[in-house]
Amino acid sequence: MYLMAILSKRLGSAMRIKPYFYLYYISIVLMLISVAYSLFAPHTEKGEMIANILFAIGMTLGLVATIKYWGWLAKELL
């Protein structure tokens, strides 16, 4: 995600797109919280569910940012 954030920041500035690359940083934070919660929280069903939800939200934000910046590439290839 960090690599995608750096590449997307440069691409966004070249294409003059809104700064969606911040979504990658939010995604990284949510995924790190999820991993830390999985490691240090008591291993219960509720704890695992919370960790999985945080991880899923983080990955979804990364996907949204990727589509915003790199969606044109899929259109070009098709």
Mind explaining what this structure looks like?
Helix content is 85%, strand content 0%. Helix 1 (2-15) packs parallel to helix 3 (45-77) and helix 2 runs antiparallel to helix 3. It has one domain (2-77). It is elongated and about 45 Å long. The chain has 78 residues and is an all-alpha fold. The chain is built from 3 helices and no strands. The model has no long low-confidence stretch (mean pLDDT 89).
Brief synopsis:
By secondary structure, this protein is an all-alpha fold. The chain has three helices and no strands.
SSE series: HHH
Summarize model confidence as the mean pLDDT.
89
Query: Helix count, per DSSP?
Result: 3
SSE-based structural type: mainly alpha
Helix content: over 70%
User: What is the overall shape?
Assistant: elongated
Gyration radius, to the nearest Å? Answer: 15 Å
Domains (count): 1
Distance between the termini: 25 Å
Low-confidence stretches: none
Q: Any descriptors?
A:
single chain, 3 helices, 78 residues, mainly alpha
Topology of helices and strands:
Elements: H1 2-15, H2 22-40, H3 45-77
Helix pairs in contact: 1-3, 2-3
